[in-house]
Amino acid sequence: MTQLYDAIGSTYRHHRRPDARIASAITCALDDAWTVVNVGAGAGAYEPRDRSVVAVEPSLTMIRQRPDGTAPVVQASALQLPFRDRTFGAALAVLTVHHWPDRARGLTELARVVRDRVVVVTWDPGSAGFWLTQDYFPEIVAIDRQIFPTMEDFRRTLGDVEVRCLPIPHDCSDGFLGAYWRRPRAYLDAGTRSAISTFAKLAHVEAGLARLQEDIEEGTWERRYGHILNEAELDLGYRIVTAKGVPR
Ligand SMILES: C[S@@+](CC[C@H](N)C(=O)[O-])C[C@H]1O[C@@H](n2cnc3c(N)ncnc32)[C@H](O)[C@@H]1O
Q1: Neighbour count for residue 233 (Cβ, 10 Å)
Q2: Which one of 37, 136, 156, 179 is least enclosed by Cβ atoms within 10 Å?
């Protein structure tokens, strides 16, 4: 997976600009934890500036995209965090757990290094997906359902967890899979897709893209989904999972 990000990560920062509303929901979940380890930190999105943060990221391509002035970064995997038990107030992991080769082990590591809480931004594989994955790329949901931990998986590893819906704003600036739910043309752009890891895993996207383009141009897309154009934000299955007082 590190190799995947070494390959697809070079334009990441351009397409994946942290969204202020998501940042604010994450800050809220971190509560008053003053020291934070951000695991699978990528280019540093959502690292709070007003706290003491250490980033952990295995991919050098991603590390190199961290802007000057961001938190110090350790090149390491979530599966073996180079920190003593209870070093940080909180651990943060944003849209990364599904990439880890052993998700339970990584989550156990997060729990080991904190005193107070683990905050994970993820997608619930029990959710239905949305028009892109339902009608054009069902293989994306098939892949994602296998790699994203279920809410029960989180409970099994972290104990009692609080699960909060993270609605996605219609103009979300962080270009992950669901970000463009109200901007269908965006998915036709190769640059946009290059920053979405599941697209990089698909062998063939041409047929789905051609159908989407045709549906947009003929007005079929709007006839089917026009009702969502009035929505400001939508629940696409993204969740903030918070474990407090995590078991060890
Ligand atoms: C979708 S990016 C998210 C990056 C960042 N958290 C953000 O929100 O922009 C997923 C990140 O997980 C990292 N990753 C992959 N395997 C990992 C592992 N075993 N341990 C920690 N991070 C990993 C990737 O290198 C990549 O930077």
Answers
A1: 15
A2: 156
